[in-house]
Every structure is written in C-alpha cells, then in structure tokens.
C-alpha cells in the first residue's frame, strides 16, 4: 500500500490556495511539498504563510523543498533536500538543523546514497526518475527494482518520483514504494487537480 505525496507546481498563481484545497479535499494525501523553483526568499515565505494553514488544517504534512533553514524558521513539518541542497556536513548536519521536523533526501538511483542518508537520520529517501517527466530535466533514471530492494532490507520509507501517473503507478505500488510523489499527474490533469488526486488514489488501490 502506497500513500500519495503531492508536490506543488514550480510556479504558482494567486488562485493556487483554492486549487490546493480542492486537491486535498478530493482524497487522502499524506504530504504536500512546496517546491517553488527560482523564487525569491520573500515569495517563498509569503507562499508558506498562505498555504501551510490550508495544508495543516487537513492533517497533511507541509514539507518545504530545498531550504532546511527556512523550513525551521517558518515552522514547516519538514524539508526535502537534494544532494546539492544539503548543508556543509551533509545529511547529519541537516538532521541536526531540522531537530524534530521531517527530513527527506533525494537519492536518485543510488543504493549507496540511500543507505548513507538513512544511516544519517533521513526520515525518507526518494528514488527517481522512474518515468520520463516534462516537469524537470531529471538527471537520473531509477529502475523499479530499487524499490523492492530497499523495502526488503530497510525500515526507512522510500518515495518514488518522476513521471508517475494513474496509468503507470501500479507497478511502483507493487514494488513497495511507501509514497508516490507527483506533480503533473495532479496539476495537469485535464479535469482539474481534484480529479487528478482521485485518479491517482483509484489507481494506487
Ligand atoms: C519527494 C521528492 N523527491 C525528489 C525530489 C527532487 O529533489 P532535488 O533533487 O533537490 O530536485 P528539485 O526538486 O530541487 O528540483 C523532490 N523535490 N521531492
Ligand atoms: C521534482 C522531481 N524530482 C525528480 C527526481 O528524479 O528526483 S523527478 C521530478 C519531477 C516530478 O514531477 P512529475 O510528477 O510531473 O513528473
Ligand atoms: Mg532540490
């Protein structure tokens, strides 16, 4: 059984809080990540102030992308850090900075990075990209077997990301992904974000 991890589009407009509320009200979303690429710090802070109450009121974890320092300062539930977002001192230093807040770490297709991250205190490891994605120029391709391998030896949850949609997600669920992280499958769903969440949850079983 996998859970749905929703990530924001890279840029958001003034109506985004309403679209987000509709998406979260459509079904069980476990975590929401604010991922604003190329945004100024002030804009990220304003977005967190507007969106975190919408998310937390629905008992969904609010995760900030890229910035552990801001996640702590703004009281987010956690931060998601890529290998290039980690502070000096790596995952251990990020773990200390975040105190009780959750820490997720991108591990691409690397078993070694994932083992290191888990041992240093990550709350989840993320593997990807599993499928072609139009959302970003993904640097790595992960094979589905890595999910089964991880789940068979580790307790730390794993997230699958990259090009996941209602048509291809069943094999990731089957392989043992704890969370499926999606952007396009929800925000670019032809019938809107609520339909996107419903389609994902139905396909995830
Ligand atoms: C859940 C989840 N997994 C992976 C990523 C990718 O993080 P990163 O490698 O730092 O790339 P950017 O998202 O910063 O472009 C993620 N954000 N969330
Ligand atoms: C943000 C991100 N990280 C990836 C990785 O492989 O680490 S793939 C990706 C994009 C995910 O968006 P979509 O669900 O639209 O494909
Ligand atoms: Mg990053």
From TrEMBL:
Annotated positions binding Mg(2+): 66, 85
Domain Thiamine phosphate synthase/TenI: 4-186
The entry's keywords: Magnesium, Metal-binding, Thiamine biosynthesis, Transferase
Pathway: Cofactor biosynthesis; thiamine diphosphate biosynthesis; thiamine phosphate from 4-amino-2-methyl-5-diphosphomethylpyrimidine and 4-methyl-5-(2-phosphoethyl)-thiazole: step 1/1
Reactions accelerated catalytically: 2-[(2R,5Z)-2-carboxy-4-methylthiazol-5(2H)-ylidene]ethyl phosphate + 4-amino-2-methyl-5-(diphosphooxymethyl)pyrimidine + 2 H(+) = thiamine phosphate + CO2 + diphosphate; 4-methyl-5-(2-phosphooxyethyl)-thiazole + 4-amino-2-methyl-5-(diphosphooxymethyl)pyrimidine + H(+) = thiamine phosphate + diphosphate; 2-(2-carboxy-4-methylthiazol-5-yl)ethyl phosphate + 4-amino-2-methyl-5-(diphosphooxymethyl)pyrimidine + 2 H(+) = thiamine phosphate + CO2 + diphosphate
TM ranges: none
GO biological processes: thiamine biosynthetic process; thiamine diphosphate biosynthetic process
UniProt similarity note: Belongs to the thiamine-phosphate synthase family.
Protein name per the record: Thiamine-phosphate synthase
Gene: thiE
